[in-house]
Amino acid sequence: MSSSTEYGSHTWELLLTVDHQDQDEKKEFLLQVTGDLHIGGLMLKLVEKINKAQDWSDYAFWWEQKKCWLLKTHWTLDKCGVQADAKLCFTPQHKALRLRLPNMKTVKLKVSFSTVVFKAVSDICKILNIRRPEELSLLKPSGDTLKKKKKKDKNSKEPVTEDILNLCNAPVSSGLPANPGLYSKTMTPIYDPASGSPASSTITWFSDSSLTEQNCSILALSYPNCSPEMLAEMYQPRTLADKAKLNAGWLDSSRSLMEQGILEDDQLLLRFKYYTFFDLNPKYDAVRINQIYEQARWAILLEEIDCTEEEMLIFAAIQARTPSHKLSLSSEAQDFTCESEVDEVEAALSNLEVTLEGGNTSNILEDITDIPKLADTLRLVRPRKLSLKAIKAYWFIFRDTSISYFKNKESAQGEPIEKLNLKGCEVVPDVNVAAKKFGIKLLIPVADGMNEVYLRCDNEDQYARWMAACVLASKGKTMADSSYQPEVQKILSFLQMKNWTMSSQATSEPENVDMKPECFVSLRYTKKYKSKQLTARILEAHQNISQMSLVEAKLRFIQAWQSLPEFGLSYYIVRFKGSKKDDVLGVSYNRLIRIDMATGDPITTWRFSNMKQWNVNWEIRQVAIEFDQNVSIAFTCLSADCKIIHEYIGGYIFLSTRSKDQNETLDEELFHKLTGGQE
């Protein structure tokens, strides 16, 4: 025991643990401290006590009981609330973390465990050469996924060894900045716009980066699919409740990894959380495009998103194209693709704005001229509960964001039979190209739910024009908007992919084609068709996309993914205030949808554009949102923490503020203001 006269009556003992990499080193040190000693002084005393020459600059104190970092080195122990019973660990802030990427490859890299997740993800994306890091986040694997994997490992006789790409030597933001060569937006293309491989002029840049040319290819190029057996072992959600579990593990962007219980060498999923892919450019975004494509591909294969059989075959045909390197396009052909497809791809990818060299600029005058209208004969289908659907032809006029219909063309000067305001409605394609069925399903919000209306068009051109007008009107835009014509072209392009014809070459000997069709479709279709049947049908669809470059094929896949009715919806199980049963809440980039859990039918849609404010009552964990016209909702989240939904809403609103005029820097303060909440 030390006497009080030796150290002073106001001193006390503090036991500190040091996280040494060397197991033989002493782990615990007892220091005599005072309450007015600041954190920086405590670090200095500890390092002097350790008496080992090494770089301690990355070390900081982690307070185990409070689950927080003591990073403000000028604060005193008293101000921090540190007393003799505190367990402080002196540990590196950057630790190894295993990340499973969307393409199912695992990378191991050093990540800051002390900065907020938003900043950590930004640093990760710099290392991986992924622009727009605000679109991604980190996700804990769901419990069901882990259970299935453990069961698989238990049944396996041989130990499973995972091929991990080690990037632990990559520079981190707290020390040297990440290598700017491949990440900065320069005038020189970084990737070949057609193949996605590193451009020859930039390969020399890899010498200074942790991403060698080979490693970059692992991230930017696609490889053959996994085996059907491996696909069968992976977790596949069957219900909306299952899909809700997939979104329960998003980490809080406003807190650090350590604060959320993540430990060194843990595995997390790096995923695109927000489905608004901004400023995609094949010359700079080969890794980003490939990872979006892979996330879409696995969502299709594991049936995380529903699609029709016709659409599944389209996805299979494009997948069969992407791993193939047999087609060699001439430089002229590549240039043609890059120049002529700009507007089409830009529209086809909806919010994916693909800027390729030589693209045509939009006519600025389009937005200020008279608003055009559509007038045509369409068939109106109204579902009836006690009888067959009533189908009747009417004269339809589409003006502004509304559809009016009349008995015939001659009566169009008078009052319409009904006028439908499409602002805020749900627009769902109802198309079967083979059967010449071109339908548009409209779910129009009314006081007590959604009013269902079906429109039937006669041909592809008519469908594309009316569908594009409906999609824009649902967002509050008219046909005068510059995105109308590209939207029409996008729809026609997608229909063209569906409208395949069987060539004699494809049908003659499908068994001679080296293809495992089970790798390109979900298990449902593997069970429904024999291998030869699937091969033949995939080859049918392949005829329309066989001449595409690798990057264009991926963009087409993303386009088709975006065209699915459920695209971009993240599901959560909630209980609305005043309701006696659970519902599913779908969160999208521009709206919230209340969905009946039993039937899967949408009940009500609320647009972010009509939202006045939202907040969280942290005591009862209830999210409350106010909309225009005195509409307000409140709900508690049952399948995840309410902070996740709060962050989703704020995150999408933050992403809507981006513009091409801004530089690459992010307004991190605004993001946290919109997403952080006040707990």
Which fold name fills CATH's third level, the topology of the largest domain?
A: Acyl-CoA Binding Protein
- Secondary structure: helix percent: 25-40%
Strand order of the largest sheet: 14-13-12-11-17-16-15
CATH architecture of the largest domain: Up-down Bundle
Counting DSSP H or I runs of 4 or more residues, the number of helices is: 20
Biggest sheet architecture: 7 strands, antiparallel
Low-confidence stretches: 1-6, 173-187, 201-209, 324-369, 502-508
Strand elements, count: 24
Structure description:
- The structure is a single chain.
- It is built from 20 helices and 24 strands.
- Mean pLDDT is 81; it is low at 1-6, 173-187, 201-209, 324-369 and 502-508.
- By secondary structure, it is α+β, with helices and mostly antiparallel strands.
- The longest helix has 16 residues, at 286-301.
- The chain is globular and about 95 Å long.
- The strands form four sheets. The protein has a seven-stranded antiparallel beta sheet, covered by helices on one side.
- The two termini are 44 Å apart.
- α6 (213-220) crosses α9 and α10 (309-321) packs across α17 (531-542).
- The chain has four domains: 11-92, Ubiquitin-like (UB roll); 95-147 and 163-168 and 209-325 and 516-564, Acyl-CoA Binding Protein, CATH 1.20.80; 372-479, Pleckstrin-homology domain (PH domain)/Phosphotyrosine-binding domain (PTB) (PH-domain like); 569-675, Roll (PH-domain like), CATH 2.30.29.
- One of its GO terms (cellular component) is focal adhesion.
- One of its GO terms (biological process) is integrin-mediated signaling pathway.
- Residues 379-475 form the PH domain.
